[in-house]
């Protein structure tokens, strides 16, 4: 018989059946002697699945957060694109004008690269690791200049932080001059000179050799190298003095004058410039002088700027979950979102490897999507998959909380988001465990919720570690915490026998007094943290949690003057909510 001593007995009957189902499904234990990564050939599939999961977790853990999709290193190249177009060597020819003037056009400018914060995006997954700007068009005969390239806009979600990776960091791609030096390695002096000239100059057919001996070419070459040196100096100076750092929290607004006349040209913002395209090459008319009336050379387009940027996405969720591994954070998120948030649940530490954001939708009377089905059990993902498979084999329709969700499209009066974060352990702030990368994303949450395992020996010790890690990462961050959710309360109270229930209540009281004594001063303006016992797995006592969270979010939004919650048609909502209650 299941134990639900801490909660009223009204729900025991339906839950007993679910427990029976859960027990009926054999879960192969993970043998201690099986090394991770080496599943024995004759084991059944679910065991292999478990081993695979464990291997993946171990691998992810070793990466120390480097593979989070909210961390990305991007190099922006102008090697062959983003570069200006080549200039052209040509002479005007016309009837009765056999030796016309030089007429090669200049190359077009290479495309600049911009970064644009975009509200509807949520991940950095769409951004390529190597980005090439658009190349400028080449110049052509009859003084036709090449086309300037279109700018390239990299769209990133709001909350992205962009940093330039400094010189000397191994993750940094070589800049345009370093790349050229690398390509010249192993060549002798004359070969180097030849290659450098090939990279910079274009010659009229069969005049390459003779151009080298002309004074006008030597002067032009000297001037080109002087300009290049100046460009390199200015770029390095900029890198040192003002490396790129963008904290893109807000979308760029289009400023349109209210009284602009009809037909006025309107430009959308492109975003922030991070790399300029190269200038176009010069056509041969540019080198016309008193000493050289027939310049037979032109310059190639300059390469665009090459920079390496680190993108980091701070996840924006109203509430962030903070808890040790296995405290039940993912189970709770699934229960609060009615199973819509697909956060993996398993009985080993570090199941959640990336933060997962779920949306909690609340109706006017405080019901939320997860509370519609009173009998819902949120179990480990493997077990749920097995059950779904069995249901499919029996030919039964798939059941699930998502089927009831459609009512909330109209009944919803308030919504907020929750980030289920990976487990925090001692020294996470020093990059132990899954490291800091997700702690960074908690910075932006409006409020934090501690999740502790009430059935554990000392949930209060967990709280101290969690608070310590938050403050070690950023002093004062623990002030955002508003609630302690004591999860797995169903494991206490020993099948309803009075002695065990009294013990469970005493433990809860101990936790409450610990929070009141040791955690109260941490709260903002002497605020006390709320303590709520719940069972995420069996969706018990969650309405209270949702009510409190709604209050925190509302307060924080009011303080920030943030988004106004969606208001429903007041005539529609009560009728629908009544329908939900009736079902
Ligand atoms: N009995 C009981 N078990 C629970 C409850 N909540 C979670 N569990 C179990 O606790 C284990 C861990 O749950 P998760 O939701 O994966 O825990 P987590 O905090 O997300 O863990 P990490 O992702 O590793 O940080 C699973 O076996 C869950 O089934 C609960 O309320 N009651
Ligand atoms: Mg988890």
From TrEMBL:
Protein name stated in the entry: Putative GTP-binding protein P8A3.11c, mitochondrial
Pfam families per UniProt: GTP1_OBG (PF01018), MMR_HSR1 (PF01926)
Keyword Transcription: no
This protein's UniProt keywords: GTP-binding, Nucleotide-binding
Region (Disordered): 387-406
Domain OBG-type G: 317-554
Domain Obg: 69-316
Keyword hit for Metal-binding: no
TM region(s), chain numbering: none
Stored PROSITE patterns: G_OBG, OBG
GO biological process: ribosome biogenesis
Comp. bias regions, Basic and acidic residues: 387-396
Gene Ontology cellular component list: mitochondrion
Gene3D superfamilies: GTP1/OBG domain (2.70.210.12), P-loop containing nucleotide triphosphate hydrolases (3.40.50.300)
MF GO annotations: GTP binding; GTPase activity
